[in-house]
Structure formats: C-alpha cells, structure tokens
C-alpha cells in the first residue's frame, strides 16, 4: 500500500517553497500571494463561464420559451402555463414518464448489483483478470446506436434468439418481449444493464482495491465469512464510489434516448417512449419548440426534486 | 501544419493528375447554388444528380449539401437561416413545415418564375395550396409521391388461389383471408408510427372518400370525427391489424417489402418508393408484383412530395441562382429524368408518360382528374397536429382501445 498523502499532493513537506535571494522582499511576496490566489480563479473561469452562460443561460431560455407559443422559431409572447397543461394532458408524455420511472429503478438496481458482483468476482485474483475486465467493459466503449441495433436483431422473435432456440429443438420457446406492449421497456432495461454494468464493475473494482489488506487479515482472524465482510464492512466503506456510480447512472437514466431509438423507436406504438424522445420529436420533427421546452423543464424539475434532498442531506452530514 | 501542407500538396498533385486524365471541367461560372437536401440513399443520389446535371446544363454551378434524414436536414437549414448564413435552396416536404419560415419573412418568393412558366396551369391544387402563401409562391415543387399504394405479390396471390386483383375493400379483405388460409402472412407491415399512419390514410381515402378525408384532415371537423362514417374508417383500419404477423412491430418498411418480393407475404400498404425495392430485386410491375393506387373509378391520389424553398441571402448572385434553379427543376425533361430515378411521378401531367413505368403511368392517369387529387395530412395540418394524430393512431393500432375513445382523442388533438 502507498503511504497516505496530504491533500496538497505534490507540494513537498514544509509548506511554502523558498525562492533563493527573494525571501526578504515582503512587497513581492504580497503580490505573489495575490497572484497565487488569482491563478485558481483564472483556471476555473472558462468552466464557470460555460456553466453560467451555456447551462444556466440555456435553462432560463428554455423556461422562457416554455411559456410562449413558439413553434419553429422562438417567440416573444407569453401564454403562462398553457404548454404545461397541454403536456400533462398528453397520454404519450404520461406514458413516457411512467416508462422512465420504471426504467430508472430497474436499471440502477440491476446495474449496481451486477456491477458489484462482477467486481467482487474479479477481485478474487482470478486468472486472466485483464482480459475479463476488457470483456466486461467493452460494451460501454461502443456506441449504443450500433449495439442497440444488434440487440434489436437478437430480441426480434422472427430472426433472433427465439428463432434460434426453436431451431435447436425447443419449438415452444417464446421470448418476444420486444414486440409486447407491456414488456418492451424491460428489453431496453436488459440492453442498458448489459452496457453499463462493465463501467460500474470498473469503478467498484477500483474501490475494492482501495480497501486496506489489513482489514481483510483482521476479518480472517476473527473468522468472519467473506460475503459478510463484503456486505457489512467493505460496502459501507465504499460510500464515495457508490455515490459516483449513482450519479453516473442517474444522469444516464434521465437522458436515455439512444437505447430506445436504436432498439424500438419508442414502439410498439408508443409503448417504450421516454421523455427525451418525446422532447426531441417535438423539438425538431414537429416544430413545437414551446412544448418541447416545457417537457425539458419538467424533466429538470424532476431531477432537482430527486437530487436536492440528497445534496441537502450530504451538506448537513458534512457540517455535523 | 507541415503535415497539412504535405497532404494538401499530395491532394493537389493527385487532382492535377486526375484532371489531366479526365476531361478538364469547364471553368466555374454562372450563378452558384448551394442546395441542402436529404436524398442520400443510392437511388436518391442518382435522382439528385439529374437535378444538378440539368442545372449545370442551364449554366449554373451546383454545390451539393446532402444531410441524412429529413428532420436533420431541415434543422440544419433553419439553424443556418437563423444564423444568417442560409443556403441558396433547401428541401422541405410539400407541407406546412416551412410556413413558420415564410411568416418570419426569411424566404424569397418565386412569383416571377411562377408567372412566366405558368405554374398555376400545370401544378396540382394540393401542391399549389402549400407553396402559395398569401398569393406568393414560396417554394418550387420537385416531386410527387403517393404514400398509399397497395402492393401485392403475384406469387403469393397465385399460391393462395386469388385469381383477380381486388377491386374493392371487401375484395381486399377476402384476399387477405385467402392468404391467411394458405399459411402466408396476409399483410406485410412494419409496425412503426409513420407506417401505421400510411395504412390509416389509405383506409380513410378508400373507405371514407374525398369528402370525409377533407372534413377530417383539412377542416378538422369535430362532428365528422365523432361521426359514424369516420368510426367505420377507424374500425376498418383496426381490422387490418388482425392480418399482420407477430414480428411486425419495429420492422422497417423495406423489410416488409422484401416479404412480398420473396412471396412470403401478400399485401403491403406503402408509398411508391417501395417500387425501388422490387426493381432492385429484378422484379417487374405487372409480372411479379401489382400496384393498386386505390379502389374504384374515383379513387384518390394522395399527394406527398418535396419542394425547394429559397432563403433570403445577402449575396447578390443568389437570387439569380434561385430563379434559375426554380425554373430548371420544374421543367418537363428534368421532371421525367428525376422521377424515373426517384420512383415518384412528375409534378406536372404534361410530360411524356411513355418513359415512366407501369405504376407511374397509372398514377399519372389518375392525376389528370383534378377531383381525384388530394393532399396528404402534412398538406393540411401543422407538423405538430400531424404528430399528435400519428401518436393516437399508432396507439390504437397496437392496443385495444375502444374506438369511441380514439374518436374523442383525435377530435381533441386536432381542435
């Protein structure tokens, strides 16, 4: 294990660096201190500007547009919450929200569980670890537009898995979820879990490798079963890793689009529709900027409503 | 930098060598037109080439700007207009997609060309109703597609013992039953929203007829939508769903056409672009497959198509280029050449039909009767209304929803 490092990382012990010959000049040192204070700000400025102008600005602009009657072009009029009323009267939008909730819960739970199990499995010092890691991480490195298409072929009952198993001698085998109104969203979950599990595995594995060996030795001496160590000691210690994983997966859920478009195009009918697809359809194809913006704002508010309590809890936890 | 220069040098050398081998192209002159369009597939590119050749022959310079997918191409056009750097011409559908652009005053009108070439005389009413806004001509039509052809496989029909081509909706259902009995897929259908919509439009035109069609899609008359006649249309539409195979959802249209080509399925509702698939497979209309535009002597010819619009630019030459382009692409010879490659029919009926194939000739003959021409949904409704209708129809096609509820939803969405 590496020796613990101080927060300032690269700076040598002893703090302030001394410059030969200049140590006496206090005025110069003062300037240097100010300059040093400014450098981080200078480094942060481009990103801060991007956030303020591009993200916050665009959000406010969307909010404004969502309260107008804009079609192809933005418009200056004000129609209050009319677009939001229309949005929530829309069955397709309601369905897409339900789909997103179902997809989100299943996807996050399944990905975290499978990703963790894969990480534990690789952590057992198995042979060919490098190769396995690559295999598991590979789906994440490929564009979902391409792999989604492959999934579509695999799941297609006429040409994919179902047909293959039937030809192998089980003529009654049925796996046609992708054309089933009520089950199609699960196929999107399956494909997404397949894609994201590798990433979770990589993150979790890094977390597991960060656990001190002494801990394992101590647990072994106490005769605690391995699964129990993972569950009751290691997992709670991996809080920061878990937080990262959740944030990554959560953003993945909210913006899910490519998986649905590549696999089902929102179908059959509108059965696997998601908010991002609804918004994109209305933004470009249907030239309804205002309704699309209203959808985007609702999505943003949903995210804030879910994330704000977590952030609040964390800030309280830190100050306590 | 060094590398870039080196590569530039190599390219220049190659180009020089190429130019020396090939005939040296004429020095660029004449009005330059940058054209955004979404014709990117093999057949479509060949069709565009007929346009660019005609434009070059007329003395212009054609700068091709192909963007895949209509939606994408249109958003590129609109973004460039808003950004102040518009193309010389841009493709839209024969629809209300560009009405907002007209309203914002971003387009040049082609009144001069329209008056000189006499557009009013030879363009179908449905096309005119879209390109003419408040008395000005804002777009030049390029093609007319008919989205609701009924294609059938002669091999499948023979196998199912169907002797004659269906002449009515009842006969079509009888044929579908026979196909089902013969163990074939009666209706080859790709379960995607836009394809469900094509089936609906075909049923509305053939079962509902001209008056109901216009009442529902153009006037958006709530009474007609809630009425018995339209209910019958919806029920017929839903009845057709019973003839598709289980694997239909999500299938692409050309895969459905392939089922006809291989004789696995009997019938498909699809636009005239499906003809390209048959042709590619070496099949011929009348011999291997049949095309039905509609049932009865007054069946409708639904018009869907493409137009070019001409954005206002600061470039002095571009208006000249736009006028030349508008005139060239609507000329009879260009139209025939383009249609043959594209699978569409010419925008005018005063062309030499003998060069067109059997189905296109049949279509052109119907087009000669003004009362049988009608626009598709896009001609009468905004993209937004169209989309809302499509959402409801695809839900109805895929789920078991009471027809009255659908009628109410459509009336609500088209209000």
Q: CATH topology of the largest domain in chain B, anyone?
A: D-Maltodextrin-Binding Protein, domain 2
Task: Tell me the overall shape of chain B.
Answer: globular
Largest interface: A-B, 30 and 32 residues
How many separate domains make up the residues of chain B? 2
CATH superfamily of the largest domain in chain A: MetI-like
Classify the beta-strand content of chain A into a percent band. Answer: under 5%
The Cα radius of gyration of chain B reads 23 Å
The CATH level-2 architecture of the largest domain in chain A is identified as: Orthogonal Bundle
- Estimated structural class of chain A: mainly alpha
CATH topology description of the largest domain in chain A: MetI-like fold
Description:
- The complex is a heterodimer of chains A (320) and B (415).
- By secondary structure, chain A is mostly helical.
- Chain A folds into two domains: 42 residues; 238 residues, MetI-like fold (Orthogonal Bundle).
- Helices cover 70% and strands 0% of the residues of chain A.
- In chain A, α12 packs antiparallel against α13.
- Chain A starts with 25 loop residues before the first helix and ends with a helix.
- Chain B has 415 residues and is of the alpha/beta class.
- Chain B folds into two domains: 185 residues, D-Maltodextrin-Binding Protein, domain 2, CATH 3.40.190.10; 191 residues, D-Maltodextrin-Binding Protein, domain 2 (3-Layer(aba) Sandwich), CATH 3.40.190.
- Chain B has 20 helices and twelve strands.
- In chain B, the strands form three sheets. In chain B, strands 1, 2, 3, 6, 11 and 12 form a six-stranded mixed sheet that branches. Chain B has a four-stranded mixed sheet with strand order 8-9-7-10.
- In chain B, a hairpin with a 2-residue loop joins β4 and β5.
- In chain B, α10 packs antiparallel against α12 and α10 crosses α19.
- The N terminus of chain B is likely disordered.
- The chains are: A mainly alpha (320), B alpha/beta (415).
């Amino acid at each position: 294990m590496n020796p613990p490092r101080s927060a300032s990382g690269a700076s040598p012990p002893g703090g302030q660096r001394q410059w030969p010959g200049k140590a006496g000049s206090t005025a110069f040192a003062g300037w240097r201190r100010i300059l040093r204070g400014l450098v981080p700000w200078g480094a942060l400025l481009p990103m801060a500007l991007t956030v303020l102008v591009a993200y916050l600005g665009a959000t406010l602009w969307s909010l404004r547009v969502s309260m107008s009657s804009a079609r192809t072009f933005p418009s200056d009029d004000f129609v209050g919450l009319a677009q939001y009323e229309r949005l929530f009267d829309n069955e397709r939008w309601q369905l897409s929200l339900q789909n997103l909730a179902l997809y989100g819960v299943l996807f996050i739970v399944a990905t975290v569980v499978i990703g963790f199990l894969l990480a534990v499995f690789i952590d057992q010092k198995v042979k060919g670890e490098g190769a396995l890691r690559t295999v598991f991480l590979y789906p994440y490195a490929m564009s979902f537009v391409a792999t989604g298409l492959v999934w579509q072929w695999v799941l297609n009952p006429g040409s994919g898995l179902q047909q293959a198993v039937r030809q192998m001698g089980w003529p009654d085998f049925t796996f046609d979820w992708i054309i089933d109104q009520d089950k199609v969203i699960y196929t999107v979950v399956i494909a997404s879990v397949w894609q994201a599990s590798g990433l979770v595995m990589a993150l979790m594995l890094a977390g597991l490798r960060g656990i001190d060996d002494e801990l394992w030795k101590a647990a072994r001496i106490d005769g605690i079963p391995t699964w129990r160590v993972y569950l009751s000691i290691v997992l709670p210690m991996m809080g920061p890793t878990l937080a990262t994983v959740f944030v990554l997966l959560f953003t993945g859920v909210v913006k899910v689009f490519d998986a649905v478009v590549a696999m089902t195009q929102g179908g059959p009918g509108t059965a696997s529709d998601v908010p991002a697809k609804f918004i994109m359809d209305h933004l470009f194809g249907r030239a309804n900027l205002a309704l699309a913006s209203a959808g985007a704002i609702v999505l943003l508010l949903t995210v804030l409503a879910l994330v704000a309590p977590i952030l609040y809890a964390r800030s309280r936890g830190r100050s306590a | 930098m060094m590398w870039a220069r080196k590569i530039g040098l190599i390219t220049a050398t190659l180009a020089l060598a190429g130019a020396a081998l090939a005939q040296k192209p004429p020095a660029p002159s004449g009005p330059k037109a940058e054209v955004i369009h979404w014709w990117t597939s093999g057949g479509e590119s060949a069709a565009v080439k007929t346009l660019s050749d005609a434009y070059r022959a007329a003395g212009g310079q054609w700068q091709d700007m192909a963007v895949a997918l209509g939606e994408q191409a249109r958003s590129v056009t609109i973004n460039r207009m808003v950004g102040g750097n518009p193309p010389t011409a841009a493709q839209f559908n024969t629809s209300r997609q560009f009405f907002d652009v007209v309203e914002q005053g971003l387009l040049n009108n082609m009144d001069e060309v329209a008056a000189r070439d006499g557009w009013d005389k030879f363009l179908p009413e449905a096309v005119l109703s879209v390109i003419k806004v408040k008395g000005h001509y804002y777009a030049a039509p390029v093609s007319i597609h008919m989205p609701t052809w009924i294609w059938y496989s002669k091999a499948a029909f023979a196998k199912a013992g169907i002797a004659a081509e269906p002449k009515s909706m009842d006969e079509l259902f009888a044929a579908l039953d026979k196909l089902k009995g013969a163990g074939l897929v009666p209706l080859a259908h790709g379960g995607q929203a836009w394809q469900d919509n094509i089936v609906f439009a075909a049923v509305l035109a053939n079962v509902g007829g001209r008056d109901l069609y216009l009442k529902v899609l153009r006037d958006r008359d709530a009474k007609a939508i809630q009425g018995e006649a339209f209910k019958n249309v919806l029920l017929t539409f839903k009845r057709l769903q019973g003839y598709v195979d289980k694997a239909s959802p999500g299938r692409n249209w050309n895969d459905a056409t392939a089922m006809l080509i291989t004789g696995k399925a009997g019938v498909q509702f699809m636009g005239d672009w499906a003809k390209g698939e048959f042709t590619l497979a070496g099949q011929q209309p009348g011999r291997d497959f049949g095309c039905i535009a509609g049932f009865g002597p007054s069946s409708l010819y639904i018009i869907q198509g493409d137009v070019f619009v001409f954005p206002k630019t600061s470039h002095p030459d571009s208006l000249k280029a736009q006028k030349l382009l508008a005139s060239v692409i609507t000329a009879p010879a260009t139209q025939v050449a383009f249609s043959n490659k594209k699978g569409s029919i010419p925008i005018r009926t005063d062309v030499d039909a003998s060069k067109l194939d059997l189905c296109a000739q049949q279509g052109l003959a119907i087009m000669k009767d003004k009362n049988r021409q009608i626009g598709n949904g896009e001609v009468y409704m905004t993209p937004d209304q169209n989309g809302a209708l499509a959402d409801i129809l695809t839900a109805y096609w895929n789920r078991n929803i009471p027809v009255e509820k659908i009628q109410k939803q459509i009336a609500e969405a088209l209000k």
